[in-house]
Recover the amino acids of this structure.
């Protein structure tokens, strides 16, 4: 595993050096070098210029993620358990996801204004479907032999759900959460693109209007760090939740 990480880091260094060599003869407007981008990033962090925008986008991402994933999980459990509800609501869920979120963003801004609420709603809507889909799949495809065993032992439907279906479906549910975490950053930035004067997405639009490409790249680095940090956080939670079940399987 350590060897793979070493090769991954080596590839990263090679890509950076190649980028530096290729971008040297070019204008910073077209493709700035990594050293120029890091210099702009460091100056922005040192002066505190990025901080308020980073925090604003982070709050939008976290709130949207919590609302979207919680709603998706609850509806996923209900639709996975109740066949009538799944057949009733699923076409509407698919229809809502078929519409590009970028097309819905102006409408949400009309409804909820230019503040944080519209961005949180967009983020929540984007995070909703991965959790819903994976939770429905996890609940539906629980091992039938285990369900029969719970039935023989006299477990109620609620007990079977809480003690069998949800724990057995945790890998699929957490997989949906990992996807939702990455999409949450995308959702917040889309909202800020359309109607926002605060946040990293709004800064990208501002840097575009100023034709400041190094600033744009430095903001993209911050967004990447945010997404990777959240993803690793979810991966850590997943390992902690699945640890007892993995130990049980080994025994």
């Amino acid at each position: 595993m350590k060897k793979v990480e070493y090769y991954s880091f080596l590839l990263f260094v090679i890509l950076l050096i190649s980028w530096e060599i290729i971008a040297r003869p070019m204008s910073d407007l077209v493709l700035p070098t990594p050293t120029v981008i890091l210099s702009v990033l460091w100056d922005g962090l040192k002066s505190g210029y990025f901080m308020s925008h980073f925090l604003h986008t982070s709050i939008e991402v976290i709130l949207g993620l919590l609302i979207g994933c919680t709603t998706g999980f609850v509806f996923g459990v209900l639709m996975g358990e109740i066949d009538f509800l799944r057949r009733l609501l699923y076409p509407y869920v698919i229809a809502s996801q078929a519409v590009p979120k970028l097309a819905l963003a102006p409408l949400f801004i009309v409804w909820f204004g230019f503040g944080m609420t519209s961005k949180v709603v967009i983020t929540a809507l984007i995070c909703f479907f991965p959790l819903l889909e994976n939770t429905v799949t996890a609940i539906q495809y629980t091992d039938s032999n285990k369900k029969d065993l719970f039935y023989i032992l006299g477990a109620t439907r609620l007990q079977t759900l809480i003690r069998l279906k949800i724990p057995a479906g945790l890998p699929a549910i957490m997989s949906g959460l990992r996807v939702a975490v990455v999409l949450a950053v995308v959702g917040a930035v889309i909202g800020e693109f359309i109607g926002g004067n605060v946040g990293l997405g709004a800064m990208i639009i501002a840097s575009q209007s100023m034709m400041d490409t190094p600033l744009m790249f430095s903001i993209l680095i911050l967004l990447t760090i945010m997404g990777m940090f959240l993803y690793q956080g979810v991966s850590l939670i997943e390992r902690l939740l699945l640890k007892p079940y993995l130990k049980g399987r080994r025994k």
Notes: The chain has two domains: 1-28, 32-247.
